[in-house]
Amino acid sequence: QPFNPTSFLVHAVSNIICSIVFGDRFDYEDKKFLTLIELLDENNKLQNSIQTQIYNFLPTIMDYLPGPHKTLIKNTESVNQFISEIVAAHQESLDPACPRDFVDAFINKIEQEKGNSNSEFTAETLTRTTLDLFLAGTGTTSVVLRYGILILQKYPEVE
């Protein structure tokens, strides 16, 4: 039977990113994980709206106007909250001598740079970097994999 592999690929890629960044994978039916994917997917769609593009150039004015850019901001705050909760849990169970994942390594670097006022290693930077990894990695990687599957379908002799 034909099927659309998009959701399977997005879930798999997101879970691999979670494994690298958080040191743990989520069950594919986990509500928090599914909510994270839905928020990221919705934000990808909202980024194409004209209001969101105008917001990128005129944020002060657009703060007073309704539109999809408001939803995008709210979704981003929800994803930041999700990431912040995981970072807080990592800080509580951190063993500086044995980092488990990207978050632990970043937290170690934050501690090393504590005295440096010019350091870019902050909790906010950690949250933003993690968000960037999800935004950049999930969509692009799953699309590339989807195109790879299509190419293999078109040229079965290559498969």
TrEMBL record:
Keywords: Endoplasmic reticulum, Heme, Iron, Membrane, Metal-binding, Microsome, Monooxygenase, Oxidoreductase. One of its GO terms (molecular function) is arachidonate epoxygenase activity. It comes from the Eukaryota. One of its GO terms (cellular component) is endoplasmic reticulum membrane. Its cofactor is heme. InterPro entries: Cyt_P450, Cyt_P450_E_grp-I, Cyt_P450_sf, Cytochrome_P450_fam2. This is unspecific monooxygenase. Belongs to the cytochrome P450 family. It is an enzyme of class 1 (oxidoreductase). It is a peripheral membrane protein. Its EC number is 1.14.14.1. It is found in: Endoplasmic reticulum membrane; Microsome membrane. GO terms for biological process: epoxygenase P450 pathway; xenobiotic metabolic process.
